[in-house]
Amino acid sequence: xxFWRVPLDADEIHVSKGIVYILEDRCKGCGYCIEFxxxxxxxxxxxxxxxxxxxxxxKKPDDCLNCHYCEIICPEFAIYSVKVxxxxxxxxxxxxxxxxxxKN
Amino acid sequence: xxxxxxxxxxxEDLLRTDRIPSIWCPGCGIGTAFSSCLTAxxxxxxxxxxxxxxxxxxxxxxxxxxxxLDSFHxxxxxxxxxxTGLKLARPDLTVIVFSGDGDLFAIGxxxxxxxxxxxxxxxxxxxxxxxxxxxxxQAAATTPSMAKTPTTPYGNPETPFNLPxxxxxxxxxxxxxxxxxxxxxxxxxxxxxLTKTGFSFIEVLSPCxxxxxxxxxxxxxxxxxxxxDRTIIKNKxxxxxxxxxxxxxxxxxxxxxxxxxxxxESYAKICRQDKPE
Lengths: 104, 277
Description:
The structure holds two protein chains of two kinds.
Chain A lengths: L17 E6 L8 H5 L5 E7 L5 E5 L10 H5 L5 E5 L14 E3 L4
Parallel strand pairs in A: 1-5
Antiparallel strand pairs in A: 1-4, 2-3
Chain B lengths: L29 H14 L7 E5 L7 H4 L3 E4 L5 H11 L4 E7 H7 L1 H10 L4 E6 L2 E2 L5 E2 L23 H8 L3 E6 L3 H13 L4 E6 L3 H5 L6 H10 L1 E3 L16 E8 L5 H8 L7
Parallel strand pairs in B: 1-2, 1-3, 3-4, 4-8, 7-8, 9-10
Antiparallel strand pairs in B: 5-6, 7-10
Helix pairs in contact in B: 1-7, 4-5, 5-6
C-alpha cells in the first residue's frame, strides 16, 4: 500500500506478518484461498499432490498479513497461517514459506 | 518458530485427522461450514467434553464422523429427535445438530418444526446446497424454481422452502442465514447461538459443484462470486422478506433473536414442581 505522505502514526502501527503453511496431502485444489486472499498472496502452482490436484503456492510471501482468511475459507483444513513474532524487516529469512507433507 | 517445524492446523485438536481428507468433493462448501462450526466451538470457550455434535444422513451428515467430540451419526432425518433426547437427558451438554437441507427439511421436516415449537435448547446448523447431493443431485425441498436437476430436466416447477421463515414461524428464538463466503459472520453467529438458550437455527448457503453446479452451469468459484456480488446483509430483516431470489439479491444476516422459555425450563416448572402439601 502506498500513501502520498507518511501517516503521522506510522511508527506506532505494526502491521502483522504471517507465514502460510500448506498441508499438501489434504488439498483438493478448489482455489478458494487463491481467489479470495485479500492480498493475492497465493497462486496455483504447476505441481500436483499425490491425488493429482494442483496446489496453491505462495507468490508474494512478504504480503501476507496473517488475516487467516485462507484458513477459514479452506474446506479441507489444508492451509493455515501463523503470525511471525520477530521483526520482519530484520529477519526476512523467517518469512520463508514451507509446504509440508503430513502423514495422516 | 523454526522453519521446517510447522505448528499444525489450529483446529487439529477437534478433528479426527486419521479420517481427513474428507469425502467432500473439491469446491464443496460443507467443509467451510464445518470449519466455522469448529472455530465457533473453540471460541465459545465451552469445554469440548460438554459439546455433542449430532448429524443425519447426507454429505453434511459425515461431519459427525470427522469431529473429535462426542458425536452421533443418526438415521435419516432423525438428527433432531436424537438431539432432543440428548438434551433432555443431559441438560448440561451443548448440543449442535449439523446436517443438510434434505435431512432436516425433507425427511426430517416434521421433527424440525416440532423441535422449534417446543423450543428445545439446541443449535441447528443447516448446510443448504439446494439438492440431494449424496444420491446424485435430485430436486429437493430447497431447489430453486427452474433449476435443472436429474429429476427436473426441464427446470424445477416447484417453489422452494424459505427456511428462515419456516424456523421463525415454528417458533425458533434465533434465526440467521449466511453463506460460506461470509465465514467470519457465520462463526460469530454459531458462537452466539451456542451460548443462547433455546432453539437456534442457522442456514448456510453452500455450493454443490458436482451435482448442482455442473447441471446449472455454475463452477464453484462462480457460485462464490454470486455470493459476493448478489448478497445483501440486512440484520433484523423480517423472515417473510428473505426468500432466495438471485434477481432481487439474497438477504443474509441475523433475522430473529428473541427469548422465550425452553421446553426443559417449562417442563421442570410444570411437571417437576415440588407441590406444597
